[in-house]
DNA sequence: TGTGAAATTGATCCACA
DNA sequence: TGTGGATCAATTTCACA
């Protein structure tokens, strides 16, 4: 039941609880109760809006793989990357590289500046960038009851 | 001004227009007007909720690079990937591979099934997977006025 | 956990600067 | 494009099954 509520809200977080309740067969108050509990449990992290990156000038996307050296500074790499507004996602990954970062900038030239900034972080050995030509889709709402 | 409204709403899409207006120095009605226009222009794509993937059992993430063969089926690859619920993002990229997909499944074993599905799409030549060990952060709200 | 109804708060509309 | 006030619709609370 919670899964169906998340799906209903995921597609449009503004949909009223009455409408959602109608869809899943619960009263307004019951939906409210469940949403409140999911917020408490951390299932719902926050309500948000989906902004079109192009519209705000952030039309350039790249994935940057980052390799650490073996030094003592490795623990500090992630916090430093978190401070950079261009870094929208950061994953610790298995394989040849240690991190995979999703970067969004205004244009290609700005990526160069971001890469210099990343390379200047103590502990970073090298980076490899994959430039996005076109984002087919993203923002796909999480479907809890995946097939 | 719109940028500040997006930032205020991006951190919590449920924040009231009165509160947002207070923050940016506008009346409730003015914020409402601007949000309406941003919805019309497509700057705001939709209101949504941020769901914690682990909480709904989708605790396994991987990035899969996909290489097309040169055949006639290449145009059909993206639409087919869009239909797969496990594929949360799909980017057309420059370099050795043609697509980069963000995949979310319940566990590693399920990724295997997803990979078989992807490899069975006509036009797909080969894939390379990068397994996520830990997501440091994602869901970073878009900061329109990036430094 | 659920319900329906009451109370409260917020979104939306309007006349006007 | 903005404002303040009226109206309408939503969330939130409550007594109770």
From TrEMBL, chains A, B:
Gene3D superfamilies: 3.30.70.920, Winged helix-like DNA-binding domain superfamily/Winged helix DNA-binding domain
One GO molecular-function entry: sequence-specific DNA binding
Example GO biological process: response to amino acid
Superkingdom: Bacteria
SUPFAM superfamilies: Dimeric alpha+beta barrel, Winged helix' DNA-binding domain
Record keyword DNA-binding present: yes
GO cellular component: cytosol
Annotated keywords: DNA-binding, Transcription, Transcription regulation
Domain HTH asnC-type: 1-59
Entries under PROSITE patterns matching the protein: HTH_ASNC_1, HTH_ASNC_2
Any coiled-coil regions, as ranges: none
Protein name, entry field: Lrp/AsnC family transcriptional regulator
Native species: Rhodoferax aquaticus
């Amino acid at each position: 039941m919670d899964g169906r509520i998340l799906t209903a809200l995921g597609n449009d977080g503004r949909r009223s609880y009455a409408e959602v309740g109608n869809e899943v067969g619960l009263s307004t108050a019951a939906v409210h109760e469940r949403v409140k509990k999911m917020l408490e449990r951390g299932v719902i992290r926050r309500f948000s809006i989906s902004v079109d990156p192009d519209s705000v000038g952030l039309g350039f996307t790249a994935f940057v793989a980052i390799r650490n050296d073996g030094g003592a500074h490795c623990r500090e790499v992630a916090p430093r990357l978190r401070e950079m507004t261009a870094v929208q996602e950061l994953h610790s990954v298995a394989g040849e590289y240690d991190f995979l970062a999703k970067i969004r900038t205004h244009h290609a030239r700005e990526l160069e500046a971001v890469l210099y900034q990343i390379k200047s972080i103590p502990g970073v050995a090298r980076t490899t960038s994959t430039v996005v030509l076109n984002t087919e889709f993203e923002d796909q709402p999480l479907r809890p009851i995946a097939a």
